[in-house]
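Thread title: Can someone regenerate the structure for this chain?

I was given the following input by a collaborator and told the matching structure tokens would be attached. They weren't. Posting the sequence so someone can regenerate them.
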Amino acid sequence: MRQEHQLPSMGSLQSLPDREHALHEDGAETDSNDQSSSDEDQGSMNSILHLEWEPDEKFFPPEPYSLQPCSLQQWPQLGLIKVQLPTKEVEGAPQIALKPNTKINLKKILADNLQDVLQVQSGFEGRTAPKLKLNAYEESLLNVLNSYRDFYFPERTWDRAESLRLCYTLHVMNHVLGSRARSIRHSIDIRKSGGMAEYQDQGLTRVKALIVLPFRNSAYRVIKLILKMVKEIKLRILNEDRFEEEFRPPDENDSNTGKKPDDYYKFFEGDNDDMFRIGLRFTRRRVSLYSSFYSSDLLIASPLGLRMIIGSKGDEKRDFDFMSSIEIIVVDQADVFFMQNWEHLVDLFKHLNIKPRESHGVDFSRVRTWCVNEWRKYFRQNIILSQVQHPQINALIRRYNFNYRGLVSVSNPVRVAAIAQVTVQVPQIFRSFEPMSALASSDARFELFTKEVLPQLMKDKLLSHCMIFVRQYFDFVRLRNYMRDLADRDAGFKFTQICEYTKDGKVAKSRYMFFHGKRKYLLYTERFHFFHRYTIKGVRHIVFYELPTYPQLYSELINMMSPANQYKLASGMESTFTVTSLYCKYDALTILPILGEKRTSWVVYKRDKKVHLFTKD
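Best answer:
Regenerated them for you:
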């Protein structure tokens, strides 16, 4: 449900006329007298400013690419935003304003259908509804997206999910339809001039935008939104039945029984298959779903779905030429890819805007000069939305984002730290270590655990029933092998394990043995917990080998230590329960939403103290 209804005004959103809605049959001729070309292009004016200029080779490309220290802006709706420009100034680039309440120009078909789209999102579909318009928050988001700068938004929440999806879909469709309309108009002009007119308005392949999503249900929502945006009375949708069959949520979907946290049901609503890819092609009276990639205008896929086509080095059959001219990439729910396979997303970015191995029938006379000069990556807009800040997302941006207009990111203070959601009275110990570098942190963490933390657990009999929470599967395997060797040498050392690959029967057996004390230690992975969210009973001590990706999991796991989840023999022992978290300075982004800014500054920057203790307020 939308959180804010507003009556329409002529403020920052404006509908401008197209020649023919921009949904044209390839090569179809339209009447050039119905609207001026300037009116036609207004709906995507910023796209023209961003793409249709020829950089001076003296100042382009901006290499070596890096970003200047950020300047800060306070926006009424988005809050604090950071703006970073390339260190090497790009002279001559057309200016695009970045400020709130800027007029937003949409293609006419999108503006005409926006009312219906908002009514569906607000729950008014099929009944009398008030006049609706984009709320102030959505207008601010579109102002940023329409500046064609890269955008990093690490504050995605479930309350904002629909607004974010609406805004990036509107932006992508405005770009795609505007580009197609200009290309078709130019083709008509070339034919009318007998080939004398010249236009460079295309890339090396047709696909202009890519939306990367984690689940089929996410893709279903985006595609249904797109079809609503381009709805016309005579519009044909090809392969719609196949799309509904393959992407529609199952009729018997798991209902919210209340046995698991609310966000679990939101993550896994509908079809949560993570292997999909689909091309969309827009023509005058037709939207083709499942169009071939080389005839598509827009691709929607999961990282795994694309990885199956991109393949690996040495594979006989692999293809990534279709991504050579991507102008906008949207990565929604980037945090979920840590729970799937982050490397698939990294591999996808590696193959963006690479020189194609084949021509694929391109008309080189229409290809932009900067495309031929291998500058495509500098014109690509990267939009990344996530629930959390994470060092690997920052690394992805640093390594693969080269937008010559720079980067905008939202960076507001943490409102409610996860530690405030802990309901169990238990000491929470944060124990630091100092690796020589970020790469050395894995070995330093392992050494601290095996040389100091684990021996202390084994020495004190009261420290049994201990869950060892591990974020990375690599670390899980390393600890499991070490603990197996230890168990072989010491008959009294007994542990069990649960990871994302553990079969259901083994999971039940491990939970039973841990709860009844037949196993003193439980090695437990974040991915397993994310996909199942079981309440593990019998936990009296937790060691966070590494703090969880999602801050809510920190309080959720600690709250499992409540007396209601303990074996009867643990009655009266609650005062001995403990929580220990291992961390270093490179974990600051993960610690911040768990402890809040003030506590984080204590534990990260006070080097004179190695141990910090917090208790429930």
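The chain has 20 helices and 20 strands.
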